[in-house]
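ligand=2-acetamido-2-deoxy-beta-D-glucopyranose
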Amino acid sequence: MALPARCIYVKQPWWRLLLSSSILLLLSPLSRSDESSPALRHRSSNSSSSMNDDISPCPSPEANSVMDNRSGTGTGRPIIGIVTQPSNGLRDRLRRRGEDATVAGEDVSTIAASYVRFVESGGARVVPVRYDASEDEWEYLFNSINGILFPGGAMFLEGGSPYMRAHEFFVRRAMKAFDQGDYFPVWGTCLGFEAIVDVISGDYSLIRQSHFNDSNHPSNLSFDRTHKPIQCSRMFRPLMAHPHADCRHESGPVGAMNGRHDVSAPDPGLWSFLSPTILQVLENAKVVYYNHERGINLTTWESTPSLMEFFDVLSTSRDKNGVDFVSTIESRRYPIYGVQWHPEKNAFEWSPWLDIPHSSDAVRVTQYLALFLANEARKSSHTFPSRKAEFASLIYHFPSIMTADAEHKYTFEQLYLVRARNHTKGSSSTAEREGHLPNGDALIA
Ligand SMILES: *[C@@H]1O[C@H](CO)[C@@H](O)[C@H](O)[C@H]1NC(C)=O
Ligand SMILES: *[C@@H]1O[C@H](CO)[C@@H](O)[C@H](O)[C@H]1NC(C)=O
Ligand SMILES: *[C@@H]1O[C@H](CO)[C@@H](O)[C@H](O)[C@H]1NC(C)=O
Ligand SMILES: *[C@@H]1O[C@H](CO)[C@@H](O)[C@H](O)[C@H]1NC(C)=O
Ligand SMILES: *[C@@H]1O[C@H](CO)[C@@H](O)[C@H](O)[C@H]1NC(C)=O
Ligand SMILES: *[C@@H]1O[C@H](CO)[C@@H](O)[C@H](O)[C@H]1NC(C)=O
């Protein structure tokens, strides 16, 4: 189908990339830190050689027929849930700025807008999933949406806590559904990665007892691209110039997928404008942003059979003290993914107090993973019971506030506010499903 286009396309992008990165640098004073980074300056003055290494030949026609096997399932209108978080400290921050803090009452939960934009930029819509909802509500949403994202944040994860119950529910539910032939991707970023590790290992102490010196750290990823599980991974395979010829017999990531969900071939049409150099950029440039104190080091990972059996480690990373930790994971059997880093921030968070990479290469990393996630969601066939019910749940109903601040340190530009469930007791959940809620004024205290 898109074969000829790809062959032409991959020879062109570095011209465009040079062009777009210089425009970005001109337009954005906030990308100054990247501009002055010697590594990146070197890269861009020399990008024709480095960018061409990974240019791939046209894939074989057989590869495409494998992709075609998926047609007939999934959705063309993906919707991804994002789990809300308690609004810890938001009220105080607003007060400090002399702003009306009542919007951040204890009954308000939040979603950082960067996660919403990340999902939207891949071509999916967002539905907030309240961390404190009932299992009935989660089950209803599970059957209505096409995937879920567990966002990052600063929280203490404890088994059985209201916040973790939501994560446990969706991970288990997605696995059960997959075993019954259904597809429901689960994505965890940073704290969300940690939550997935907690649920799968069943041992919350692995993460809780860890400590890393890795706050506000732009760095890279380490991986061995010749390693078969990485070549056959769903997340990185589309970026491979010469992926392993046949992953279908691999007992790991792809082989375990049944024919309907087989993703053993790269999709040339989908990735061609982004893919040729993304793996190189991830390995060699500081486009990967870390901001965590907990995680899981290689020793702990390798001595935890439940994790070793469940996941392939697609990348590791090194904190500021030189300690290596697991940074990108993909379940061998299930569409469950975790990144200990923050792809959404490159394009969507701009705090001047943080060293978030904003180069053109860094933004391509955001864009690739956003497309990847939305594409995973397109394989799910879940739908809301009616269009009215679908529209009633979308993020577009929910108010957001600017949390960026010219004078005080901050992390997020903007937060969506989602009224917690405990305070909507008066309204029946049936009414909500039929579209009477949520509405703006019901959401803020
Ligand atoms: C370009 O890259 C090559 C190989 O990495 C290096 O030897 C050379 O010095 C670079 N040229 C410039 C202008 O940076
Ligand atoms: C909801 O209310 C119950 C009972 O009042 C309380 O125990 C629980 O902690 C609340 N949940 C959240 C998330 O605030
Ligand atoms: C790895 O993590 C465990 C548990 O947190 C810790 O006891 C151990 O010292 C860590 N090892 C390294 C090399 O940091
Ligand atoms: C599609 O999947 C079915 C089984 O799920 C398999 O028998 C068939 O060979 C596959 N077709 C292609 C073109 O791979
Ligand atoms: C990438 O990270 C690894 C450690 O994980 C480090 O050894 C390597 O030097 C880094 N590469 C670059 C180009 O920063
Ligand atoms: C964390 O890393 C920074 C930067 O390398 C270093 O200055 C600092 O001493 C480290 N802190 C600890 C507690 O190791």
